[in-house]
Amino acid sequence: MPENFINLGPENTRITSRNLFIKLWLHPRATLRFILTNSPNAHVTQLLMLGGVARAVGRIDYEHPRAASSISNALLLAVLVGGLFGWFTYYAYAWGLSLGGQWLGGRATFNMCRTVVAWALVPTIVSLVPMFLVVDIHSTNSFRREVIDLPLSTETLTYLLTAFELILVMWAISILLAGIRLVQGFSMGRAVVCMLLPGVAILLFVGSISLRMRVFEMATT
Length: 221
What we know:
The chain is mainly alpha-helical. Helices cover 78% and strands 0% of the residues. It contains twelve helices and no strands. The relative contact order is 0.13.
């Protein structure tokens, strides 16, 4: 373990295994340093699975009103598929962060990047709450309409919940960047590049495959 992970400093002494989920929000770098030093595997699997669920739920199309049974089925499918397979995306992303970091001169291992990615998902997982509410208010016979009679229009409430979701997404990105800077030893600019590299690599890979298929189709017609 690198030396800077061991020299925790005064701020880190206030962090314990019991308040990690609280300290992470305001002291992400110090909290991630504590986790990587003391319990790098703590809650990693659960966070990756829940992150997969949040990603799947976020993809539900709620723009058109649906019956309660239809929306329930969509949510159930999102939870099952996201929980079982969604974590794989984050494993692949952590692997990309590790390789991209090495290319940029970083020092982090795959396990370090996996831990950082998992804990950076905490705000994303919390965003499940507004996600479920947004999906619910766009379904017919929703729980909100029947039980929680708020003095707000559906459109206004949707905008507020969506804004809250965006704040949580930005918070997740800030935690991820703090983690990348910590484990890779990067400046903010290099950390941003490292964060984007896996996605850019995937887009280039998919684009090259699509281009080759198109060229092949043109050649055979």
